[in-house]
Amino acid sequence: MKADVQPIIQVKDLYKRFGGLVAVDHVSLDIHPGEVVGLLGDNGAGKSTLIKMISGAYKPDGGQILLDGQSVSFATPLEARRRGIETIYQDLALCENLDASANIFLGRERMRHQLGILRVLHRSFMLRESRQVLDQLDIRIPELRNPIRQLSGGQRQAVSIARAVYWKARLMIMDEPTAALGVPEQLKVLELIRTLRDQDVPVILISHNMQDVFAVADRVIVMRRGSKAGERKVSETNENEVVSLMVGAEYTQVIKQLHDAPDLHITTHDESEKDVR
Ligand SMILES: Nc1ncnc2c1ncn2[C@@H]1O[C@H](COP(=O)(O)OP(=O)(O)OP(=O)(O)O)[C@@H](O)[C@H]1O
Ligand SMILES: [Mg+2]
After folding, report:
1. CA distance 164 to 158
2. In CATH, what is the architecture of 1-84+169-277?
3. Which atom of ligand 1 is nearest to the CA of 49?
4. Residues with beta carbon < 5 A to ion ligand 2?
5. Model-level pTM?
6. Within 13 Å of residue 33, how many CA atoms lie on the same side as its CB?
7. Which of 125, 185, 195, 218 could lock onto 181 through a cystine, CB 3.0 to 4.6 A?
């Protein structure tokens, strides 16, 4: 991360409630070019709600989002995407009945003139460009004209990432991109995240898989009950500290007491790793 460079995204005091429940409680954060930021927190901590506000799916009840230093407000995810904020949602997929190429160009279709007057989709152009960006990223989709719903989970994530690369996204947000994938596909998604970073596109990665996050992230932001519980460079923290931030001081103390109790043996992740060596 280059500290002297202006953040691409600045979130200031973002706030969202659903009825009486405060889902995101005055959260602020900065995302810089070319960094991968893990967004962590227990179920219901507010991670998805936070990124949905950044990506135009939810309207914030308070606070501000700055893109390249300018205040923005997106009415829809498409509007955010057109400004360079690409999102893979936990619960929303690509357009299932369209093919990969149509998804890459969704909302930004290339048109051509037919018979001098009619404007029609320029399918061959879009297919050619899509094939090129997929090849460039070493993403294999044998039949580009098949609807997205026929692709594997990993291929779908890959199509979203190809879209971000093709349109030179300013920010890629991924909400649980590897949760439903097998191991080879998970590794491919992690590799693509590194490719995005190398192209200076920052990534916000939400994942319950802490090992994935530690494998690719430069920084982690931890949320607890709607608030930001902490922020750490990955090189300066470890999984135990992050879990403590996730659960809060009171539970950390309970876990420590259980751990120290002579007649109880609690296996931490670190110890279980040692066991298999
Ligand atoms: N559309 C909604 N309507 C009402 N309540 C909601 C809605 N979306 C989220 N919530 C509530 O807001 C809180 C934060 O939810 P959110 O989905 O942002 O958490 P999360 O950190 O993404 O959790 P998970 O790890 O389970 O995906 C939860 O209490 C959730 O039940
Ligand atoms: Mg979520």
Report:
1. 10
2. 3-Layer(aba) Sandwich (3.40)
3. 18
4. 48, 90
5. 0.87
6. 11
7. 185
